[in-house]
Design goal:
The structure holds 2 protein chains of 2 kinds. Chain A has helices at 14-33, 41-66, 68-73, 88-105, 110-135, 159-184, 191-207, 223-246; strands at residues 4-7, 10-13, 149-151, 154-156, 216-217, 221-222. Chain A is mainly α. Classes of the chains: A mainly alpha, B alpha/beta.
């Protein structure tokens, strides 16, 4: 829908731009708030940097391992800039591994570090939903509501806007909550992270109902909602569990 | 005090999960109501918008007549550097898969190009897949092309599997075409 921004000879795709902008602003915010989680801007920066590099390398190698015959035809394509030649699962696994190794080496407290990364995730997810809005992905089902948008041949729910608004609300929640945690420290280590996950799962559970591209399970249930529900249950349970064990004495 | 608080909270959490489960139930939808295959739109999961164009060689090709064959629609112009770079890669993949029924439709955005320049480029690179001439830009418009090249991988059922904006490497084309052939016809 807003696919292109032309800067001189360089055509920038709006979807990619929102994604990068979201991650960059998210990183800036996470670095600024790091002290609230007894973390440092340096650790946050290094964690995301190593995760990013390892993620790209892991994603490309994992993709190449699955399609080695095609790469054998043109081995230099291992270095191709096509984002389509990345395996998201292999990439996430490599990124997670890199973060674990870094956290282990630097003796970082796992829960607090996860808390410290939530501002990054919160802003990046706003960028992600705006990117979907720009590309017309994650589109809604047909509706005659006055705020419907005309997309892909039908008047549809603007699901990307619903998601963006909820992501902004979640960022607001995070902002209010992190102000409180500085008083409570060590307080509820990990509580922010699981609370953030719970809110995101709830948001997805809600907005998936309006999507026009849902994958269905058992003939009529939306798969993403079932996964989101399970994630919500896990996050709420973890928050309860942490609260029981780490409740500050006052 | 804390215990009562925790207890209230767990009741609240269970309540939330019940509402969540109810919402899943309410938003259940009959099969095929969310897949948009029948609507033509230039987007993954939708029917590739149909077109009929003349080729450089003077033939007439209609997209919908190629149902049953995997198709790569590539929209290009001879002045666009990434288009020129990916064409030889497309040619190599075409050479390996055309026997199996793979089709490439290289749609020249002739409204932003000239037929002679396009023909010179095609001859120079020895391209032997059909080069379609979109003289008035209808296909570019229907496919909402904002950047050249843009490519669409279309399955045997005529539904777009993937849209790629920008130049493609040989491996990308090859793995996508392999995927199209792996699908059950």
């Amino acid at each position: 829908m807003l696919p292109l921004i032309q800067i001189g000879p360089l055509p920038l795709q709006a979807p990619g731009l929102f994604l990068i902008l979201g991650m960059w602003l998210g990183l800036l915010l996470a670095e600024r708030l790091a002290a609230r989680f007894k973390s440092t801007a340096n650790d946050i920066y290094n964690l995301t940097f190593f995760a990013f590099i390892a993620g790209i390398l892991g994603a490309r190698l994992s993709y190449a391992a699955q399609h080695w015959a095609a790469f054998a035809e043109a081995p230099l394509n291992l270095f191709s800039l096509n984002p389509g030649l990345l395996d998201p699962i292999g990439g996430s696994a490599a990124a997670l591994l890199a973060m674990l190794i870094y956290a282990n080496r630097k003796n970082l407290a796992v829960w607090l570090t996860l808390d410290a990364l939530t501002p990054f995730l919160a802003v990046a997810s706003i960028g992600f939903h705006l990117s979907n809005f720009a590309s017309g992905k994650a589109f809604g089902a047909e509706t005659s509501l006055p705020w419907s948008i005309h997309l892909w041949g039908l008047d549809r729910h603007p699901t990307q806007i619903y998601d963006t608004l909820l992501a902004i609300l979640i960022l607001g929640w995070l902002w209010l909550h992190t102000r409180r945690i500085s008083d409570l420290a060590p307080g509820l280590a990990g509580g922010i992270f699981w609370g953030f996950l719970a809110l995101n799962a709830a948001a997805r559970l809600f907005t998936e109902a309006f999507r026009g591209d849902s994958v269905l399970l058992f003939n009529n249930l939306r798969a993403a909602q079932i996964i989101a529900w399970a994630l919500l249950a896990l996050s709420l349970f973890m928050r309860m569990y942490l609260e029981k064990n780490y409740a500050p004495e006052r | 005090m804390n215990n009562i608080h925790t207890k209230h909270k767990s009741i609240f959490f269970i309540f939330i999960l019940l509402i969540g489960a109810g919402w899943i139930w309410l938003s259940a939808t009959p099969e095929n109501s969310t897949t948009s295959g029948a609507i033509p739109a230039p987007q993954e999961g939708f029917l590739a918008p149909d077109f009929t164009l003349n080729t450089l060689a003077g033939e007439t090709i209609q997209l919908s007549e190629l149902r049953g064959q995997p198709v790569l629609i590539n929209i290009w112009a001879s002045w666009c550097p990434p288009c020129r770079t990916e064409m030889p890669a497309m040619q190599r993949v075409y050479r390996d898969f055309k026997e199996q029924g793979f089709v490439i439709l290289a749609v020249n955005a002739t409204n932003q190009d000239t037929a002679t320049k396009a023909a010179d480029f095609v001859a120079d690179k020895h391209l032997n897949f059909p080069i379609l001439m979109d003289t008035d830009g209808t296909v570019s418009r229907n496919y909402q092309i904002s950047s050249l090249p843009t490519s669409f991988f279309v399955g045997r059922d005529g539904i777009i599997r993937e849209m790629v904006i920008g130049g493609m490497s040989e491996t990308l084309i090859r793995t996508r075409v392999e995927n199209l052939f792996e699908e059950t016809p």
